[in-house]
Structure formats: structure tokens, C-alpha cells
Amino acid sequence: MDNILITESAKAADEASRPRGGFLSVLTMSFSRFRQDLTVIAPEIILNYSRKGGFKDLPGKGKPVQIEESDDLYTRTLKSSNLIPAWLALRKEIVRDMKTILDNIQTNDEDQIEQLNQKIRKYNRQVPNPLLQKGVVTSQNIQEKYEKWL
Predict the structure, then answer these.
(1) Which are the contacts of 87, defined by CB distance < 8 A and separation ≥ 6?
(2) Helical packing angle, 86-103 and 110-126, nearest 10°
């Protein structure tokens, strides 16, 4: 890093981005200058590092990169921390509640079914795709709906 040269464009970007206002302006301009400087300096840093042989002995060199189908940061973070989205947790809770109601079908409490329908409505608001939404249940169709939820 001691051999890095700052180009004339980086100096021009520095002069052009000098703050001229209040605190927010100073903060915005500082961040803007940082981004401009980084876009100018980063390629030089990488090039210097490459010239010094910094990329010669990297692990996995010459091997194909293994990319999972859903290899985005959000999905990896959720998987590694064993978390699931709120709508999936609610879905599991709804299935569990349906099973409980079906096991106690003789009591057939309408209040339980209404509480279940409130959870279903909440689930429908949370799902990321309208195709995943489900209909509310009644005491007559709960068995059929339960099978669709599984």
C-alpha cells in the first residue's frame, strides 16, 4: 500500500467534493468523496497487489467456483443462523393449530376457528408472493384445508 500513487483524477475529485455547508452537507460530501476516491484508488490497489504476486497462491485456484442456486447473502445468513422468515414460522403455527382443532373436532369451538382465521389473514399479508396465500377455514372445510397446508 505504500507504493500506491494517487492519480490526478483522484486529486480533482478531492477538490470538487470539498464541503460547502452544514453538518449534513459535510457528511454527504465526505461520503461522496470517499466513494469517488475508492472507485479511483481501488483498481490501482488491486493492480499493485496483483503485480506483487498477491493472487498467485489463493485457495481453490484453478478449480471451478461452487455456487448454490440461492447463494445470496440473505439466504446464506438465514441458513447459517438457523432462522426462518416470520411468514414460514407462522405457517408452521397455523398447521399445528389446525391439527389441534382436528384432534378435538367434537368440541368444534368457533372461537378457535376464528383465531386460526386471524392467523391465516396475517400469514396472507406476510407471504412474499400472492400465489402462496391461503383461504380461511370453516368447521366444514377444515380437514380439506389442512391437507392443502401440508
Answers:
(1) 123, 126, 127, 128
(2) 160
